[in-house]
Amino acid sequence: MVVAEAVKLETATPTFRFRPLGPGRFFMAAFLAFWLCGWLAGEVFALSLLWRFLSTFLSTGQGALPAALFLLVWVSFWSVGGAAALHHLLRAIWSEDRLSVAADGSLERRVQLGPFRHRRALPRGGILRFQVRDGGLGGPLVAELPGRSLEITRLGSLQQRQEAAEQLNRLLGLSPADPGDQPSAPAVLPAGWQELTPSFGSPLLVPDLAQRRRHRLVMGLINLVLWGLLALLVRGGGSGPGFWAMGIPLALVVLACGWAQVWLTYGRREWRLEPRLLVLQRRFGHGLRTLGEGRALELIELVDSDGDRSYRLQATRTPGNPLRIAHHSSDPSTLRQLGAWLAARSHVPFEDRVPTEAQRREQRTAELERLRQQLVASGRLGRWAAKQLDKTVATGAGRVKQRPEN
Predict the structure, then answer these.
(1) Measuring CA to CA, which residue among 269, 273, 268, 294 is closest to residue 342?
(2) Each residue of 218-242: pLDDT tens digit?
């Protein structure tokens, strides 16, 4: 087992190495390997059947075209699922992340996934600090940059990632984050957004127009393929149940994607920036409709039933439900930066309600104490379980205090 530590190589370059740990990964790898065997058999059978159907149709103009279209869609999703399973299999048993610090302070990240390797230089000048996000078992080691976080690795143990963060901050002269303070964010418009200044009226905040054009191009290509499939299906004739079984779902998908293309071309949601007021409006062609107004901003954390966290920046209004501005599934840094920019631009109050690390620890401590009280009140077996819980918590706290300084 290779721990995450600064290793002096021949070039005297401190290098942090992270590898997968824990016996549970072997059970997951065994399941994925078994699943991939079935996946490969299904992939080969479906591709051979698809080739047979398409060859018959192209040579004779006849054949089970609905079945061929169904197989084409099925093989596409099946191939994506197999690639994802192979990625997780290699990540569990044959992977390594390395982070090297050169003498001039430049950083290089090297990622190995099975036989594949690639390198990437990190922007040393823009890194504020290294830290383990959320401090939980699944918290990755990240590099905090202005307005965003760059994930370094999820491999290794929590202790290894925490030690690596401490050593990296010390080597590069960076200030670690205070767990009791909220991260600060510069009042700079983050990537993915654009400010428009019309010839008359107030400024507008809209999604990045260049990115929107790329989305429109991709959706156009998807529509081209779908319309081609629908034309082939209609050309094959409307007789037989296979035509309706494939034609109706495909027609619905074509209509949905066609509407998405129209919306990307003519419509958008935008925010009008008034003094101490944010106005959400919907534009479609030459039409414009106001959807709501917000006089304050807040960044909140959402936790689903599985314990996964996501983040939302929204404009609050009274009365009425908040108006969502943006959402991120894992990182609040970009939303925090956008909120700071909107607050500075329109002079509206901005409240960051994402819990700090200190608050998270307090919440976990309160939850453990509540669980302990419930166990004590449940009877003799519960009191025994409460004692075991106390011993486990004390042992974990002792390990943290006795963690060696490197």
Answers:
(1) 273
(2) 999 988 888 877 777 776 665 555 5
- What is the domain range of residue 286? 193-206+271-352
Backbone phi, psi, residue 185, to 5° = -135, 135
Pairing state of beta strands 14-18 and 287-294? unpaired
Last residue of a domain, one of 312, 330, 352: 352
For residue 221, being part of any structural domain is answered with yes
Q: For the sheet containing 350-352, what is the strand order?
A: 323-328, 309-316, 296-303, 350-352
> For residues 56-69, b (16+ Cβ closer than 10 Å) or e, as one string?
ebeeeeebbbbebb
Higher pLDDT, 331 or 296: 296
**pLDDT of 113-123, one tens digit each?**
888 888 888 76
Instruction: Identify which of 385, 348, 362 has the alpha carbon closest to the alpha carbon of residue 274.
Output: 348
Cα three-residue angle 113-119-125, rounded to 5 degrees: 135
Residues 6 or more apart from 7 whose CB is under 8 A from it? 14, 15, 16, 17
Q: Quick one: CA torsion of 88, 91, 94, 97, rounded to 10 degrees?
A: 160
